Amino acid sequence: MAASTRLVVGTNMSIFHGEPGANALKAALTSLSVRLAGTDGQSPPPCRPAAAATHPCHRRERPVVVDVGANRGQSLGAWAAIYPGAGMVLVEGNPKTAAVLAGVIGAHVAKLTAAAAAAAAAAAAAGASVSSVPSPVPRVLLARALVGNESRVVKFRSSIGGKSSEMSGIYPSDVPEVNHAEFEYFKVPMESLDTILRKATASLPSPERLPRTGRPRHGRKYAVDLLKTDTEGYDVVALTGAPQTLASARFVLWECHIKMATTSGPGTSHAGAAAALAAAGFESYKLSPQTILRFDGKWYDWRLDKGRYMGWHNCLAVRRDDPLRRPLLSALNGLPECSVPWGLDPVEAQGAVGRP
């Protein structure tokens, strides 16, 4: 295991670059979508119309997805497919991007609403009984805020026309504004993710508000099925600044970014991220289309926090006690020469390889 880790860190870190790793996770979760719903802890009684007067059945709670740095909604369709009928909170701090995202959300929900209405009409015409499964139409909330570990107003620089987009981001308030032909400047609120979710869901019924401090209803173990962050290098700050949300999440997809190691970045590290996630009950893995690389605890390699080995990588945090841990990790392990995902304990490997 360790030899394989040293090899991939030393020679093949490019396989972890970019979105393919996140896409591999989406594909793996899609293949496990039925089992995701079956292992979230909910066990509603079956709907029996004859007994409804005395023992009414209840609908399953919506799955919950929190997408921080949702951009223009590129992942909205994937989350809706993996978690049908999900309650989503999409967080976007760039004012111009958030305006585009609002339109994308409206169009997506309208499309799914029309499809659901047509399906319901067809079912009614066929005399089908009412299902206990919630509507496949997601409920999507948009929160326009930057995620940090404190509450304040910051200056945000946004590129005009998509040019120099890599230079967009938080701009020092004490530095003069420049290049107005290429950039616009906005004042944007920054708050912790716990606070943002509390405000965004304040109008929902009490059991559906986030973050949840108690155990969810209906036997659910975690209130957030998937937490995704993409904050251009500040993901560790966002996660560690939201202890309630992190404690209530089942899976975490976050971006390991080169900016973590630059002088202008937040000064975070893979080691620090893995330690914080481990304290919350997670294991940590880098994702690629070919394989995964574990980097928490004894699997950490110091080179992961050196600039030449860093880049734009997607990382997964999965709970050690999650019932789908083994099949999910096995689905993500695509190297034919590796019998098990790097970092998976040898004893567990016998049960992981080949599991459906």
Automatic annotation (TrEMBL):
<protein>
    <recommendedName>
        <fullName>Methyltransferase FkbM domain-containing protein</fullName>
    </recommendedName>
</protein>
<dbReference type="InterPro" id="IPR029063">
    <property type="entry name" value="SAM-dependent_MTases_sf"/>
</dbReference>
